[in-house]
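Researcher: Here's a chain I'd like modeled. Treat it as a single chain, no partners, no ligands.
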Amino acid sequence: MLDTPGRDGYPGRMQELMRTTDPTIIAFASALLEGEDIDVFALDVHMSILEGSIGILPRRLMVRDHDLARAQIVLSDNGIPTGL
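Model: Modeled as a single isolated chain. Structure tokens:
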């Protein structure tokens, strides 16, 4: 988990919402969640430097604890499985 302040200044813990090797899914999911005023943070987005840009290392999308259930519903409603 990751501690980070949100837009409202609340220092909430963050949990992993999803992981994928497809950067377009991360971008789409981030846009959907931000549209619902859910703070998101993508991890491991610069790992392509280490892997040589072959896309084998998954990227993770994090949301605050209290937004996790709502974020899962938003993604599910839009056909994006969280798989966690």
